ABC transporter family protein
Amino acid sequence: MPSASILHPDSFQDEAREHLLVVDMPPDGEGDRGTKFRVRDLKKVSDAGTPILNGINLDVPKGVILGIIGPSGSGKSTVLRALNRLWEPPSGTVFLDGRDICDLDVLALRRKVGMLFQIPVLFEGTVADNIRYGPQLRGKKLSDGEIYKLLSLADLDSSFLSKTSGEMSVGQAQRVALARTLANEPEVLLLDEPTSALDPISTQNIEDVIVKLNKKQGMTIVMVSHSIKQIQRIADVVCLLVNGEIVEVLEPDKLSEAKHPMALRFLQLSG
Ligand SMILES: Nc1ncnc2c1ncn2[C@@H]1O[C@H](COP(=O)(O)OP(=O)(O)OP(=O)(O)O)[C@@H](O)[C@H]1O
């Protein structure tokens, strides 16, 4: 059976514990899928000297949906943003497919590792302009057919092509932002609470798209969410972050087995 591991912080120093922290993934029939991201000893301290990340060690297996949950201010977005160099750690390393991401061209990295934020930000112009933008930067002109396909991947129909951002709801704009990210043919999607500003129907649309990209294209997805129910609906593995540390790594249906007191309190209050 294929297995994949997500490392607990201490296991970097104490390899002997590693076997305790292996999370068996559902069989996919393709053997060991390998590791997409390897994060080692990631630390961050605020200007005032307060620890923000306290030595994050994490392996993200290829082709999984990893959920990151935890109390506000625990460092979830900071971890996510380190994965495509929206900030660069003074201490620690992030490897993508075995390569230190600081050795990669930053634009090439961000094409491979697309990111979606809580509030969609669209460029001026039409939906088509937005979707064409990324490929154009690398000299590729998308055909109308390719744009339709991207729109349909993001669950939008062709009537959106000529719309501008002012003409769309937040949910529709988020799907356009997703189509624009997909135009870069990313291997990984980083999602920072992508549905927190959306109504339940738009949320479900986005969730469906995320699951489809993962199941049909094998895309690796790392998603921060405040909604435990959402994480349970779509993630394969869940990391619980408290005060800049990963305190639990669990399968979604085993979250109630969390032992860390703060994690337990967070889970209980989140219902
Ligand atoms: N640019 C920054 N300068 C200083 N402190 C920062 C900066 N960005 C974030 N922080 C601090 O780092 C900590 C972690 O922030 P982060 O946004 O990663 O948390 P989070 O878990 O994503 O929170 P939330 O769930 O509220 O979005 C917080 O205490 C925050 O105040």
The two ends are 33 Å apart (CA to CA). Helices lie at 76-82, 106-112, 127-137, 144-153, 170-182, 200-217, 228-234, 261-270.
